[in-house]
Prior knowledge:
The complex is a heterodimer.
Chain A: E1 5-11, H1 14-26, E2 30-36, H2 39-49, E3 53-57, H3 65-77, E4 81-86, H4 90-98, E5 103-106, H5 113-124, H6 132-140, H7 147-157, H8 162-169, H9 173-186, H10 192-207
Parallel strand pairs in A: 1-2, 1-3, 3-4, 4-5
Chain B: E1 9-14, H1 18-28, E2 35-41, H2 44-54, E3 58-62, E4 71-72, H3 75-83, E5 88-92, E6 98-102, H4 105-119, E7 124-129, H5 134-143, E8 147-150, H6 155-166, H7 174-189, H8 192-202, H9 207-214, H10 218-232, H11 237-246, E9 250-252, E10 258-260
Parallel strand pairs in B: 1-2, 1-3, 3-7, 7-8
Antiparallel strand pairs in B: 4-6, 5-6, 9-10
Amino acid sequence: MNEVLRLFVLGNMPLMVRRMESLFAREANVELLGAAAAPQEAVALCRELRPDVVVVCVQRAEGFHHYLQAVRTIAKELNIHVLVVGRADTLLMVWALRKGASGFVEEESIKREEVLLDAVERVACGQLVLTQAQLKTYMRSYTPMSRRERELITLLGHRLDDDEIAARMGIKPASVRKYVERLRRKLELRNREELCAFARDLIDMSDT
Amino acid sequence: MTKEYRSPYGVVVVDDSEIFIKGLQSLAMNENSHVQLLGWAHTPDEALKVCRRVRPQVVVVDLCLPPTSHTHRNRATMRRTAASGSGVHPTPSTHGKQLVRYTSPIYGLKLIRALCEQFSDSLRILATSSRKEDALVAQAILAGAGGFVDRDSDPDAFLDAIARVAQGEAYLDQHSRQVAEEVQRIRKHITPREKEVLRYVCMGYSNQEIAECLGIKVRTVESYVRSLCEKFGVRTRGQVSAEAWRLGICMSDGNGGVIILL
Lengths: 208, 262
């Protein structure tokens, strides 16, 4: 990219934000317009300054949904590309994308600075920044489920076995296996282990 | 750019254009190339055979492929299929017979699905096409491709796409991802019967005609059409058809037929 990339950083991960500030300050083709910890202040600044990309570093702590709200405003109202950075967290990734983020990178993966710079550049070009595995999971999150299926998923996510699930749902253990198979096929997962892993991720989602 | 490439990636390319394959071959032979062309194929069947034999890490699939193998057709068929505007081009063959190929993205998408089924996680797929509609990209991703690159990209961008997809990155633009979401939503809500009715609606059949084809009452068809309108978020059957075509849910099979990809 020949033009200078105008960037804004926002987040509730102070160390990460500070690290980014110093990284972007050193980069010749990036102009850091500002960094903020408060979501509303950041949105107001973005409205005024119109950066090319906003990097949001968010962790699941109290009030983190304000940051996701900010992602939504910046991405959908202001039409500015948003890159979300967070811990390895399925829920966060899915939510960030649903709110309009153009990409999600895990904290681990940006230990090498060029990975972050690359992600920022690609997002600025209109590319999606995700791994193939994350994209698959994200697309899978669109599967609608009946009340009964939700019940089953919750119980699977809490690591109950067939007999316990059968007791809770008021059905036979054999029926549980049938439900599980149907749900697995509906979610396009390969085996019961994958279904249980997915269920555990969903439990996380509903806890917040 | 992730400029550090490790050892070369074994690549198979599936494309009905010999020129394109030769182009990729010559790029792959450059010194610093991270692409090792292990094989190529012109049709879906050949592709599956080649992949089973050479076990590549990445398969580059041109979406517009012929159905199975090149078929011989007589002139009358040529005229008929050419009229449907589905990309039929008669090519002179070396045997002196008229060789007619029709191609459609449907076959490329089918191949992607077959590759995913047969090889699951042991290979990655990069879809490509000279057609650039978001809907096509979306369908490629939903079929299981890890990414889509414009066939007319410059060589460096193309090779970069191969490397990224080989490394497990998704490679697509944001607009296409939005289309993929729209398609996915509809796909997860529509029933098999509604899919059948949708196909006839997209072919322009009236409720009466649909009822006759499916052997059900007109009232039943009407209720399916109403349900489709709801699921597509539109008011009229015409809009359902327009949306289905726009989202690439409905595609021409290159031979006058219409296929629903959901």
